[in-house]
Amino acid sequence: MYLKEEDRRLVKEWRNLAAALAIKAPFTSSILRKMKIVLKENMDASISVTEKGEIYINKQRWQKLSAKDKIFVASHEALHVALRHLERGKKLIENKENQSVAIWSLNMSADSKVNDLLYEEGIKPETIEVATPKEVAKLLNKDVEKIKKWSMEKIFKELYEKYKDFQGGDGGDGGGGSGGGSDISQGGGDIQQEQGDTVLQEGDVQNTQKMTDEELQQYWNEAVASAAASAKIAGKETAAIKRCVEELFKPKVRWQNELRRAIIEGMGNRTKSTWYRVHRKGIDELPGIQRLRTPDAWVLVDTSGSIDDQELKQFLGEIYGVAKNCKVTVIPWDTQVYDEITVRSPSQVASKVSKYMKGGGGTEVTPALQYVKKNAKKDDVIIILTDGEWFDEMRAKIELARMRKFHRILVTTHNVPDVPVDRVIKISL
Ligand SMILES: [Zn+2]
Questions:
Q1: Model's pTM, two decimal places?
Q2: Which of 5, 264, 279, 393 counts the highest number of beta carbons within 10 A?
């Protein structure tokens, strides 16, 4: 491809900047790499992004930015895309009475989330003014650490509720001007690449181009989770990164408590036998020093036809919550057992499990129970995620009664089947 001298220089400069970022900020860098970045000669807005990961930037404006600002602006837009702020934002502002305040609240909330991540990774702008959690905290008269923990939706709601009666032209004086103005509320659907544009990088748009909304969501979730995993490996996982991944997969069950309880109950059984052995062997072996095996978890996920998208998404969140505490083997089932998927870290939930979570078929849990009975070890934790509408409740009852050497947890969104388990947890969506 023929490139003008000037373009060649811009592309080369960008490559150097991006390479430096990869070392400094692996999380953002890993997400930014997936974006297509295009500089446009004639563009009304200064910046525009699409859900598929295209970032269009006004070329004249770009050339005026310092190196630091260039990295900041591109990273800022990349995170909006990967965190699905365009799509989430549309849902937030639709049907809001005061549209200008809604748009302002959206930009403030989305920008403060993105900028919190960037600042903690050391990516800061040089000359551009941006919205941060600190600014939101001031507006809402709240502690900044509290604001950082809030989701974008929660920040939006609080801002909108406080300012919705404000009638002020372009949407308040809260200083909502971000790196790209209202870069997410307008969307970039109508802008396309044209001849003469400068492509700084191609990214992964060839793949995202063909994706449906659902596939895109999965794609970006995976991108964020694996970016967080690389940051962790590099020893650069910040608190904001952790919160951000947490927001993608929100478990409703407090798995840390549940699993601790399972271990303690399991230990109770074991301690008795240990004491007995010590007595027999004599005093040279001290009691209480025993190697405790952390139990593995087996998660049986109901993927039958009655489970809707929202339930599947929540199940994914629960698996994420379990995976934070121990090794998990996930078994999707409807009337039969599908491939078992081993998850060793929370970030693998997005990359390995989500693609198998497709609903369909009837609901019989017995084959899945029999499978686990054969493969799990004593004291392992068996977790059933389901809506509780089982065709084979009687058989399941018999099967579960034979599984007392495991810790059995039933998590249900609707019906509670009458079966013997150690714990029933009902969650509402
Ligand atoms: Zn923004």
A1: 0.76
A2: 393
